[in-house]
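input
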Amino acid sequence: MPVDLSLKVRQAIFNLFTLITCMGNRVRLIFQMVSILMYSTAAIAQEKSRVDSADITPIVKPDVQKEHDSLRNDHLHNMYGELLNDDPAFNHRYPLWIPATRVLAVNVFNWSIDRYVYNFDWAHISLATWKYNLKKGWEWDSDRFGINFIGHPHSGNFYFNVARSNGYSFWQSLPFAIEGSLMWEYFGENSRPSINDVINTPISGMLLGEIFYRISSNILDDRTRGRERVFREIFAAIIDPPRALNRLTQGKMFRVTTKEVYQKEPLNITLSSGIHRINNADHLGDPAYNAILNLQLDYGNPFETRHRKPFDVFRFRTELSYGYGNRLLGSANGYGILFGNVVKENKLLLGVFQHFDYWNNTIFEVGTLGFSGGLILKTPVAKHSNIYSAFHLGIVPLAGNNTQYGPDTSEIRHYNFGGGFQAKLEETFNLNDWATLGFTSYYYWIHTYVGLPGNSLVGILKPTITVKIFKNLRIGYEHHIYQNDRFLKNIPNVHITSSEEKLFLQLYLEDPKRNGKYH
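output
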């Protein structure tokens, strides 16, 4: 029986989609992260209560694989009994013309907002501007850092999820993100099509898009009815608006099934909030202080032996700050597996990963998209103590980094476009669940394509300690070191070192189906 949602509820969902679409990309991303936190906090508490009341022990022991062979070996479910893929009987693939025309509709809608609500100069297009763009061809644009390295990837996630929620796989959805980007570059603006945008929009867009798709799948449950169903649909709509609109038109928003029809994986959430001190922020004066809010999502169990699809395992972090410099979205970093396998049961995953990094604070700006070979390793030390490690080494086809001390605050570009290599190391020593010692490092070697000729070596180091206060609440300290060595042609070399300190409270929300504090 279909769920009887009133016309007012349907209109509210449509209005919500319109509101989210009209938001700026950075504000929209912040809105989505806060919504993930709000929903997941309630959902995990509800699930933990259900598990406790049913006297079900979470699956945490090393021999858990053997105990659940009957589920794993049917090739349909993971070790927790959840689907490995969306059920095709309830999520069939629609004809090509449907997502293709809806990508067009997304662009028309976004352009209409830009032209008739915001009245941006670049949105004044005509047949003459289309002809000019087609004739003059490509260029590297001069948009501000945040527009190019968070705005366009976030737009690309919309194109991607139009196809993803029409039954297309991860790789099958990429051409539609490319379609949307090309269409926008040639016909959505009166400036020449941008080389950096047509790379960053679809490639980084598919990373963000798959993360939002997976999170929304964890929220949706077509077996539910009434108030719970309405809240699930609303939260999923905030996180993945294109999917919500497709569900509305496909009738999925109102159907009720007798079984689970979406792939779900364990999701652990780490929330930190506190004070951020920037040492010698202006090279002259005293340290500056910000309030910070950090959200980290750890999706999937990397040590489960199974076939891996793209983003069956991913990590995503974002940090918001308020105070000095008014850089509300300070960072967004994530990576997800593209393909790989566990080569040592319950201990070691090897694979190829996709990366997205965005740093934009009062000291420096770095944005990259990358691909790497990598590993995730668990090393037992004692009965309840483990060292969790992740190491990645790969290429960076596109990067941006600032050419001055401090961020780009002008209306024109003051950063280089480039590419090169990256390395990342994450180490977390979990001491019997009462404390953690962590060390995270990012290294980028960036050769300039466009901008000041030369190379930049960027290093970001983050040693961290947390101590348990009560249950899943901890207090923590992080020391953040940033180094940038710029070796420039015909210009004196530049060497910048700065540091930041963070004191915070940390709330760890653990999915009861999977323990493991690696973060």
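quick obs: The longest strand covers residues 365-382.
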